[in-house]
């Protein structure tokens, strides 16, 4: 109902009204790509902990196409050691096992007719590269 009203009010057929409202109200101190990255980050961390989080703004992801600093840095053993608790694991082999399980599920989430599916975590993280560098 809200979607229908908003689309009629704005005179545009939005793919996701909620995401449009969120993105149109991003405060000046925050850049839109940072909000989208945070939303996607919550989604991926949620997947690792079996918590359901849906990144409503993922369709606005124009900046983090294959480049996500947090995940890029997982190749470093030092960085991995600092964030392993956040990832919900004790060591890199446990994390790789979690990644393999998520990858096996595939990228099956997203809005119908909305800029594609949510990128699977392996779009940003190569399990073989995790904690492989000093």
Overall description:
The chain is elongated, with a radius of gyration of 17 Å. The protein has one domain (2-129). With 134 residues, the protein is an all-alpha fold. It is built from six helices and no strands. Helices cover 47% and strands 0% of the residues. The longest helix is centred in the first third of the chain and has 17 residues, at 32-48. The protein has helices at 2-10, 17-24, 32-48, 69-72, 77-87, 92-105. It starts with a helix and ends in a 29-residue tail after the last helix. The model has no long low-confidence stretch (mean pLDDT 84).
Question: Which key terms come to mind for this protein?
Answer:
mainly alpha; 134 residues
Question: What would you call the shape?
Answer: elongated
Count of runs of 4 or more consecutive helical residues:
6
Unreliable spans are: none
Helix content: 40-55%
Outline of this structure?
The protein is an all-alpha fold.
Spell out the blueprint of helices and strands.
Elements: H1 2-10, H2 17-24, H3 32-48, H4 69-72, H5 77-87, H6 92-105
